[in-house]
Design a protein that fits this description.
The chain is built from eight helices and four strands; from the N terminus they run βαβββααααααα. It is α+β, with helices and mostly antiparallel strands. It has a four-stranded mixed sheet with strand order 1-4-3-2. The relative contact order is 0.13. Bound molecules: zinc ion. Zinc ion (ZN) binds next to loops.
Length: 186
């Protein structure tokens, strides 16, 4: 099932056609025709400002449905699932690393936070997902690009790949990756 969508309108279009899409199957109970819309997912920007960033649908087990009750979350592709920051902030962090900033300095500049412990978690997760990024790029990394980034030492592989992604994609690569591959960027 599609998880990442271009925008909220695309999610709404998808959820309004749940009843007329009998081919849609639940991964858990394998049943069809029991999905119903289950409300918006919001990101709270401040005490007075929240933004709809996704929707939930449920494989319904009530109101005459015989589904399993599991909930699925549908996200707009610029949102990183289960993360506080958007793909744009993460890519600011990545861009600053590519420009040669230290891991902590890049995190502080991108997030405007003084605490940097998550910076290392981000970097670790980017490395874990390296093969997914390579799979997305499909073409090999040019030797010149890899050579230019030798000074990154331990981070060379991941930063070379992310640099190639930056040049290959229009706009935020995190959003483009999530929309195309239908998996979370980190
Ligand atoms: Zn189900």
């Amino acid at each position: 099932m599609q998880k990442f969508f271009k925008d909220l309108n695309a999610i709404e279009q998808f959820t309004t056609t749940l009843k007329s899409t009998p081919s849609l199957q639940c991964h858990y109970c394998l049943k069809h025709e029991h999905f119903i819309s289950h409300g918006f997912v919001y990101k709270q920007h401040s005490t007075t400002c929240r933004e709809a960033v996704g929707k939930r649908i449920i494989c319904c087990n009530r109101y005459g449905h015989q589904g399993c009750g599991r909930t699925y979350q549908l996200d707009i592709s610029r949102k990183l699932p289960k993360r506080h920051y958007s793909g744009a902030v993460l890519f600011a962090f990545i861009s600053l690393l590519i420009l040669g900033r230290s891991v902590c300095n890049a995190y502080i500049q991108a997030t405007k936070q003084a605490q940097t412990r998550h910076a290392w978690r981000w970097l670790k997760q980017l490395k874990v997902n390296l093969m997914n990024y390579r799979g997305y790029l499909k073409v090999p990394i040019p030797v010149e690009t890899a050579d230019r980034m030798k000074h990154f030492k331990h981070h060379q592989l991941v930063l070379t790949t992310l640099t190639a992604m930056l040049f290959a994609v229009k706009g935020c690569p995190c959003a483009a990756f999530q929309f195309t591959q239908q998996i979370a960027f980190i």
